[in-house]
Design goal:
Blueprint: E1 7-11, H1 16-26, E2 33-35, E3 48-49, H2 55-58, E4 68-71, H3 77-80, H4 83-103, E5 108-112, H5 124-137, E6 143-148, E7 152-153, H6 161-170, E8 180-181, H7 182-193, E9 199-204, H8 205-211
Parallel strand pairs: 1-2, 1-4, 2-3, 4-5, 5-6, 6-9, 7-8
Helix pairs in contact: 1-7, 4-5, 7-8
């Protein structure tokens, strides 16, 4: 069964995938409104509402109907500056956003996690992603879609030479560890938003690439 979401809530619209997803949403004829809070202003669009500022301030103030919520929030430990700061974004902020989306009436949450997410992992990054997934499951969403992409490939505003090199090598790896283009991931997320499949669904990177073709 397929749906036609009209009111979208999007977090992470200034990131690599979020920016591409926002562009797609604003060009979908069925989408009437995209509510995309951000720290930096986004380009004006007649169907876009863009509260700007500190998430701790604007999250409780968000209002209006929401059909589907997308969470594209994410950082790196290097960007965040510490493991604690990384957890504050990739766990705490994601969970707080999802909670507010549910309060606003969203019935489907689509969140970007990461390949290897596991709350029992010895790798800090994977453990935080796994704990985030656990926290979202505990919110008891009617429909929760967890996307676990491999290394994201695409042009970022900030230079990440190591990721660029890793991205080239990741294209040689088969299966779910093969790198995924951010544009493919954005297309896959929108296709998943159109599906009415109750419960929790985890989509690994190889399936995301197929959906995003």
């Amino acid at each position: 069964m397929y749906l036609t979401p009209q009111h979208i809530l999007l977090a992470g619209a200034t990131g690599l995938t979020g920016e591409l997803l926002l562009d797609r949403l604003l060009n979908e004829p069925t989408v009437e409104r995209v509510l995309a809070p951000s720290r930096k202003p986004l380009a004006d669009h007649p169907h876009l509402e863009n509260p700007v500022g500190d998430p701790a301030v604007f999250l409780p103030q968000l209002s209006g109907p929401v059909d589907v919520a997308f969470c594209c929030l994410g950082t790196t430990i290097k960007q965040a500056g510490s493991e604690e700061a990384f957890r504050a974004v990739d766990h705490d902020m994601v969970v707080a956003f999802a909670k507010r989306a549910r309060e606003m009436g969203a019935r489907h949450l689509i969140v970007i996690s990461a390949i290897g997410a596991d709350p029992e992992s010895s790798i800090f990054y994977n453990r935080v992603k796994g704990e985030m997934e656990q926290s979202l499951r505990a919110q008891d969403w009617p429909q929760l879609t967890i996307a676990r992409p491999s290394l994201l490939i695409g042009e970022r505003l900030e230079e990440r030479p190591a990721e660029k090199i890793a991205g080239l090598f990741s294209k040689l790896i088969p299966g779910k560890y093969h790198g995924i283009e951010a544009c493919e991931l954005a297309r896959a997320l929108w296709r998943l938003a159109l599906e009415d499949q109750q419960g929790v669904r985890v989509i690994e990177s190889d399936e995301l690439r197929k959906l995003g073709k």
